[in-house]
Amino acid sequence: MGEKRNRSKEDRGIPLLFSIILVFCILGAVVFSVAQKISREMASSAIQNLSESLDLMKGTIEAVLIKEAEFQKLMAQEIATIKDPEEFIRSYEKNQTMVKISMIPAGETVGVSNTGESFSEEELDFSSGGSVEGLPVSQSYLNYMGTWAYSMKCPIIKNGQEIATLYVEYIYDSLDESLPNGFYNGRAMLYIMDAKSERLVLKPKGMGQRDAGHLNLQDFYRANNIMEEDLQAEVAECVKNGKNILFYHDIRKKDALNYMWAVNDGTIYLIGYVPIEAIQQEGKTVNQNILIVVGVMLIAFFLCCMLYYFNQRQQGRIRREREAEREIHNRQLAEALHAAQMASNSKTMFLSNMSHDIRTPMNAVLGFTALLARDAENPDKVREYTKKITASGQHLLSLINDILDVSKIESGKVVLTVEEFTLNDLVSSVDAIIRPMAGAKNQEFHVEVTGIKHEYLVGDETRLNQIVINLLSNAVKYTQEGGNIWFRIIGLKQRSSQFEHIRIEVEDDGYGMTPEYLTTIFDAFTRAENSTTNKVQGTGLGMAITKNIVELMGGTIDVSSEINKGSIFKVELEFRIPESLADKSFWEKSGISRILAVNGNAGACQGIQELMKDMNVEVDVAPNVEEAMEALLRGGSDYQVVLLDRNVPDLDGAGTVKKMREELPEEALILFLTDHGTEGIEEALRIKNTGILHKPFFVSALKESILEMRSDLAKRDELEEEESSSLEGMHFLAAEDNEINAEILEEFLTIEGAGCEIVENGQLAVERFRNAAEGEFDAILMDVQMPVMNGYEATKAIRALERKDAAEIPIIAMTANAFAEDEKAALEAGMNVHLAKPIDVELLKKVVSKYVKRRE
Amino acid sequence: MKRGSMKKWAAVCLAGITILVLAACGGEETGSRNLLNNEEDNEKTVNLFGPMEKTNPDAVNVARSAFDLTIAMAEEELGLRVEYNTYTAENYEEKTYDDVTLDRARNDMDDIYLLNPDTIEALGSEGELMDLSGLSCVENLRDVVKTANTVDGKLVAIPQEIVVYGLFINKDMFDQYNLALPETPEDFLECCRVFKENGIETPVGANRWWLELFVFAQAYADLYNGGNTEAEIEALNRGESRYSDYMRPGFEFLQEMIDCGYIDAKAAYTYEAIEGEGPDFLAQKTPIVMAYWGAANTETAYGNPDFELLVIGLPSSRGSMPVIPTTGYGVGANAKHQQDAVDVLEIILSDEALQLYAENNKVISPSKNVEVDCIPALEPLKDKVEENVYVLGSNAGMKVEQWGNTCLIVRKLLNGATVDECMAEFDRLQDESLGK
Fold first, then answer.
1. Among partner residues B58, B84, B100, which is closest to A146 by beta-carbon distance?
2. In this complex, is the C-beta atom of B104 within 8 Å of any C-beta atom belonging to chain A?
3. How many CB pairs under 8 A join A and B?
4. Pair A214, A140 in one domain
């Protein structure tokens, strides 16, 4: 697949590359041809330009020659009129142009010259046949001044007869002034050549290169390496015929235009060369500019290509990301489908389990009910059956509670009820529940509390209880008889001074779990083994509930387990530390400022010190009785309480207490810290102001013990509670639409000696209460879900009645809507308290006793 | 981050290119509507007349390059341009460079002239050259220069190099025939004989200019190295002794050379310097030629031979003898740009310029302050000069001009005149100088 994609990429890439190369080739060809065309046009233009310049120079030189000839004619005419022409000649001063004037009288061969010497025509060569304005021009020669010159001769005619010939010598140097100063900016070379002798007779000034002084045409050729014979022949032919010639030839390795330009019918020539780069300066600039433009275009093209490339790459990346996203999405969908299928399977399995689990106790209930009907006359059997029916009912109830809990947590309806609580209460309640369970299986239940700095915390105690009890009950459940269960509360390092960070550990040495099961232990509807084959019954929801609650509290739960070795659950939680402690004042008021803790366990002592620090109570520590006695001897009167660990090695029960008593003030309390039971210290406990305090140590527990011992309230309270818990003689109004429930309620109340009037819905309840005499009912037991009018509305209606007792009469919600929010709704509707069905008579009794004023 | 920086770079590049293109295509605005630059060309020029060497394409003429360097110094420093006027005879029938120099100097055609020894004396005595003794560079000059170029008490020319002439020897060929380097005329003739016998048709390559070197070496070896120079010259100037007496041995020597076929007289009569005899020497057909010091350094002459070159003095009774005809730059007495010309000379003859010149050309400088190493081939010649062993090829202190006249008389010998006829010509010249 990948290969195919790569191949298709390559397939796309190669034509693209060829296309780019093709575009470049075409562009290059176009640019090249444009540059060539421009060069050609520029060259043509340059040739024309050079030709014009040379024509101009030629015209100038010819004009000079003509002027010279004309002037010479005028001179001849003038001389003809002079009496003594020879004297005139001798006295004629030379000037810059005419450097020598000579005259030979007709018929003679020697004449006079203005230089004072005799003059003969033999010195001159007029054989070349050149002429200007009809005057013969001599071949060039080096004159007496050491410079190149030419002469023209003109007849002097007087009265129609030629009386003499006038010879005037002109120097080429005079032409210099008529030629451009620095031809082509000094880069061109320009000479005047005598056509016949091929001598270079003038190199105008400003013509540059010093080392190129040329002697004659051959020297010019040699110096400039123009050695092609055919070219030289062509030039010679042109020179011979007095024609112009212009040709390309490299001069000193530079392309140059060479020229031979005929002047005065080819008697003299303008010769030289111009480097092409000098003549086509603008052409070069144009080509450079074209190259710059092409360069810029290429850069732009490359930039575009780059942009395109980057864009494509980005698009590709986005596409890949989308594909990846889609794949993830698909995978998630597949996973979700799988999870859904799993969930469905789990739920199917759960339903199957539930079917079994519910049917089993239900079967027991129905079976025993049938047996009950049959053996109604036999009180022993009845008692036995009802006991079993109750057990099965309780099991059913716990199943239902768990299911409801899970569904509620999963639907996010759980709200934590955050209140102040003490770890002491937690430990006590858990201990009260688990210890009997463990005891029933002969298991050792160990409770350890270490490192706790604050026992008063803020949190949802009920849910925390639920977590711990879930874990512990599982531990009990999944541990064989005679095993050990450890419950530890460990204070961890605080992350914030406002929060207590604790770890709850529940460990057992029971069956343990397989690694596979550990991965799903916290999933709902799973169980260590299929319950139909497992002796241990349960909903399989406990751990899911536990984990959810822990997470709801912002904590973590971990588990490690080994099969047949046991398991350990670790729950880490943080609880806010309450800002003010009501207990603090208790210690001050009680006059307790110093405690002596006698304990062999240094850690435990430290724990006590830590906990008491907040209470402003000083704790002195003694590891054994001996040292404790020493401390008491030193200042026994300072101690108000002595905490005497049951396990101190040198403890001698009552003896120790008595010894201590001698040193302590009379009202000082001695409390034995014990795990459980009072074996061995019964005698000591009989001594006044001596009591026990169950481990682990908690401030609140200590406080309660102190209170108990000081006021002996405990017994009284107990009696009062017992008395007030009785429902005897009370009369209730109960709104209950379900006949069976109504009947059960009526039966329970009747058994308790209370009367009850049942109405079928809220509306009837309101009516009945409105019509009732004041004090006719002690309380109203209100179901919530009822036809016509529900419990909340009925409560509101009752509370709204204009009766004195309408606002006061206790209304107790008795409903299957067992959630906290239901309780909240009930209270908001005006009910006093909320009780969840099924009815727990003991609970009902407690609640009633609390809210209903006993009629005197 | 990476892509971001790439984008930034791309933006900066684009901006840079845009600015460059805009700046490159922008034109300069001028205030005036006139498109022409009418600034007058006030450049000063100085005309210099010198010989023109026929040049080969792409060949580097070291001497000219060195001279150009010093001229460039002057142009830059003085803000003027030195214009060259040149001449070289196309053939022996044409006017010589010296002839043209005389004509041009006499007609005030140029400002500075590069003068050969004969023209120095001629123009100097005619008063056509200005006295250069006031130039600040003069005090650095070697005495030999001052002696040779002083005419009637005026220093009329100063050279950039002391031109030392010698024999250019193909050492390989000498070694081939086990020949020692010749010290005396006899040695020389013996060498020639051996070469001739070994099939070297013309052992000595000569041109129409420099055969006189043999004459000078033999004529004046004693005069310049005998310790009585001034008295002997004075005697010649007074006519008490004859030039012909000095010159005769040299002429007889040349005659013998011609007679023996060691020199091709006819060819020599028409050959221009180096141009004629040079190719045969470089082709190793001729083992001996005469030339000046600088020819050993320049590619256009004998600067790059395929054999071991050695330059020695000319044979004389006192052994190998370099011949020094002092040349020099002179300024026309009526030159149009005389002051500028003097300024140019001041610069091109300064120690700095002479140092530059000598370093480039590897020649002996006329300045006492400039010392430059020479190539190995020139060592023998240099040693002689250093030992003050040489003869002057020209001496403005002698009433009879030596360099040019001797050259012309040697040509007569080449053209068939007898030694006696040549000596008669010297006597005539001496008599003319004495006003007889």
1. B100
2. yes
3. 81
4. no
> Which candidate from B24, B56, B83 shows the least CB-CB separation from A222?
B56
Q: Which two tokens stand for residue A227?
A: 């050695």
Task: List own/partner pairs for B59-64 with CB under 8 A and 24 or more apart.
Answer: B59/B299, B59/B300, B60/B298, B60/B299, B60/B300, B61/A211, B61/B298, B61/B299, B61/B300, B62/B294, B62/B297, B62/B298, B62/B299, B62/B303, B62/B360, B62/B361, B63/B294, B63/B297, B63/B298, B63/B361, B64/A210, B64/A211
By C-alpha distance, the chain A residue nearest B52 is A213
Question: Cα A701 to chain center, whole Å?
Answer: 52
Q: At what angle do helices B338-348 and B351-361 cross, to 10 degrees?
A: 60
Q: Residue B104: which of A146, A213, A306 has the nearest Cβ?
A: A146
| Nearest chain B Cα distance for residue A147, angstroms | 7
Task: Give tens-digit pLDDT for B212-240.
Answer: 999 999 999 999 998 888 899 999 999 99
Q: Across the interface, do B55 and A211 touch by the CB < 8 Å criterion?
A: yes
Q: Which helix (H) or strand (E) holds A513?
A: none
Alpha-carbon A414 to chain mean position: 34
Please indicate whether, in this complex, the C-beta atoms of B84 and A142 are within 8 angstroms of each other. Answer: no
Residues of chain A positioned with their CB less than 8 A from the CB of B84:
210, 213
**For residue A129, what pLDDT is reported?**
80
Length reported for chain B: 436
Q: Which CATH architecture does the domain made up of B47-163+326-376 adopt?
A: 3-Layer(aba) Sandwich (3.40)
For residue A714, what pLDDT band results from cuts at 50, 70 and 90? Answer: very low
Which of B45, B61, B104 lies closest to A145 in CB terms?
B104
Q: Looking at the 3D structure of chain A, how many domains does it have?
A: 5
Choose the closest CB to B107 out of A145, A223, A292: A145
Which of A576, A595, A613 is the endpoint of a domain? A576
B309–chain A nearest CA distance, Å: 27
**Token pair of A333, please?**
């969908």
Domain final position from A150, A175, A200: A175
DSSP annotation of A483 reads: -
pLDDT at A208: 45
Same domain membership, residue A759 and residue A691: no
Q: Are strands A200-202 and A189-194 parallel, antiparallel or unpaired?
A: antiparallel
B159, two tokens: 């050279």
The pLDDT of B355-384, averaged and rounded, is 87
Task: Report whether pLDDT(B314) > 90.
Answer: yes
Q: Say whether residue B94 is in contact with chain A using an 8 A CB cutoff.
A: yes
Does the ipTM exceed 0.85?
no
> Quick one: average pLDDT of B133-158?
88
- What is the extent of the structural domain holding A195? 179-279
pLDDT at A211: 47
**B41 to chain A: which residues are within 8 Å by CB?**
181
**Cβ–Cβ < 8 Å for B8, B16:** no
CATH code, domain with A660: 3.40.50.2300
Whether A152 shows a pLDDT value over 90: the answer reads yes
Is residue A564 within a helix (H) or strand (E), and if so which, with residue range?
Answer: none
The domain spans of chain B are 47-163+326-376, 165-324+397-433
In this prediction, residues B377-400 reach a mean pLDDT of: 88
B10: contact with A, CB 8 A cutoff = yes
Read off the pLDDT of each residue in B282-291 and give the average, rounded to a whole number: 93
Contact A166, A135 (CB under 8 A): no
* B408 close to A (CB below 8 A): no
Q: Tokens in use for B231?
A: 């008295």
Distances (CA, A) of B206 to B176, B197, B262, B280, B288: 22, 19, 10, 10, 9
Strands B391-392 and B323-324: parallel
Quick check: B52 and A296 CB within 8 A? no
CATH superfamily, domain at B165-324+397-433: Periplasmic binding protein-like II (3.40.190.10)
